[in-house]
Amino acid sequence: MRMIKVKGKHVILSLVCLVLGFMIAFSYHFTQKELNQNNTNLTSKQWEKTIDLRNQLIETEELNRKLQKELNQKQDKVFENEKDLSKVAEVYSTLAEDAEKYRMFLGKVKVKGQGVMVQLSDGDYDPEEENINNYLVHEYHVFKVINELYISGAAAIAINGQRLTSQSYIICNGPVITVDGIQHPAPFVITAIGDPEVLTSALNLTGGVKDQLVNDNIVFTLEKKNEIILNPILGKS
């Protein structure tokens, strides 16, 4: 009887251990399943978030490309406008320069620069000369000097300080000449603004203006000037 009781106890203990082991195994399996399910859900959420961020990035890149294209188009338009404005500015600059030249030629502005000074004086009196006009400076003598200076590039010319224009006229009246209605006695000082070397060379050519005037008994003197100032014509500024 005692052996049977001991065996009964062992059977009951074995059953208890078996049940306990089953419960532990079931609990472990259930716990692992829950953990795997949670891990699966977490990964799925992360993946959805990743997809969403990727889509946003794609949209942002597409928007950037679109904006970059618009920027390039606007930059091209600005470049074209700048070219047009540059051409317009160049035209206006040219017009301004031309206007300044016209004002200078018309004697409306004061001009300053290098140039030459030519003085024409009457020749020495010769009592044996019957015609007094043969040693006086006449308007055609003055014209020869002025024309040669203009041809040689003179920008502005004055006679005895009086500016000349494209409409100026010179008339000889005995020992004096009249420039635009104003009389000037000899000697006649002609000042011209321009390249001194060029102007001097032109007047000194062999057989040129200087030689012609000297042959007419005119006292001809020529001097280079580092600075000549010609005031505007009265009423023209």
Summarize the structure.
The protein has 237 residues and is an alpha+beta fold.
What do you see in this structure?
The chain has helices at residues 2-105, 139-151, 196-203, 209-215; strands at 111-121, 156-159, 162-163, 170-173, 176-179, 182-185, 188-193, 219-230. It is of the alpha+beta class and 237 residues long. The strands form 2 sheets. Strands 3-2-7-1-8 form a 5-stranded antiparallel sheet. A 3-stranded antiparallel sheet has the order 4-5-6, with no helix packed on it. A hairpin with a 2-residue loop joins strand 2 and strand 3. The longest helix is centred in the first third of the chain and has 104 residues, at 2-105. It is rod-shaped. The termini are far apart. The relative contact order is 0.12.
CATH class of the largest domain: Alpha Beta
Second CATH tier, the architecture of the largest domain: 2-Layer Sandwich
Shape: rod-shaped
Low-confidence stretches: 1-7
Q: How many separate domains make up the residues?
A: 2
| Gyration radius, rounded | 55 Å
- Give the termini separation: 152 Å
**Given the structure, what is the number of helices?**
4
Which class best fits the helix and strand makeup?
A: alpha+beta
Write down how many β-strands occur, each being a DSSP E stretch of 2 or more residues: 8
Give the averaged pLDDT, no decimals.
78
Strand order of the largest sheet: 3-2-7-1-8
| CATH topology grouping of the largest domain | Alpha-Beta Plaits
For the biggest sheet, the summary is:
5 strands, antiparallel
Binned strand content = 15-25%
The fourth-level CATH homologous superfamily of the largest domain is: Protein of unknown function DUF881
- Give the proportion of residues in helices: 55-70%
Helix-strand topology string: HEHEEEEEEHHE
